[in-house]
Amino acid sequence: MSAHCQLTGTAPRFGNRISHSHRRTSRRFDPNIQRKRYWLASEGRSVRLTLSVRGVKTVDVIGVEAAVARIRSRGGKV
């Protein structure tokens, strides 16, 4: 599963792991990605979205219909 939110576009960020002696090595900060299933009443089916936790909260506020419309307007597949 890709660490990428379909709604907010959140993707992994990169940085450095710094040891006690201050040697730096690469590391990756992954967003908290969840797979959630929502009922899409207009199409009479359920959709499975890959969302960050912030994306899940956004769907709770704007509704699943508006969220799917936003994803599709960006060219995303639902």
Question: What can you tell me about this protein's structure?
Answer:
The structure is a single chain. The protein contains two helices and four strands, in the order ββββαα. It has 78 residues and is α+β, with helices and mostly antiparallel strands. The protein has a two-stranded antiparallel sheet. A hairpin with a 4-residue loop joins strand 3 and strand 4. Helix 1 packs across helix 2. The longest helix is centred in the C-terminal third of the chain and has 10 residues. The protein starts with 12 loop residues before the first strand and ends in a 5-residue tail after the last helix. The mean pLDDT is 95. InterPro entries: Bacterial_rp_bL28, Ribosomal_bL28, Ribosomal_bL28/bL31-like_sf, Ribosomal_bL28_bact-type, Ribosomal_bL28_sf. This is Large ribosomal subunit protein bL28. Keywords: Ribonucleoprotein, Ribosomal protein. Belongs to the bacterial ribosomal protein bL28 family.
Q: Give the biggest beta sheet.
A: 2 strands, antiparallel
Pairing-aware structural class of the strands and helices? alpha+beta
Kindly state the percentage of residues in helix: 25-40%
Global Rg: 16 Å
| Beta-strand content estimate | 35-45%
**How many helices?**
2
Kindly state the mean pLDDT as a whole number?
95
Which overall shape is indicated by the principal axes computed on the Cα atoms? elongated
Strand order of the largest sheet: 1-2
Helices and strands, in order, run as EEEEHH
Low-confidence spans: pLDDT under 50, at least 5 residues? none
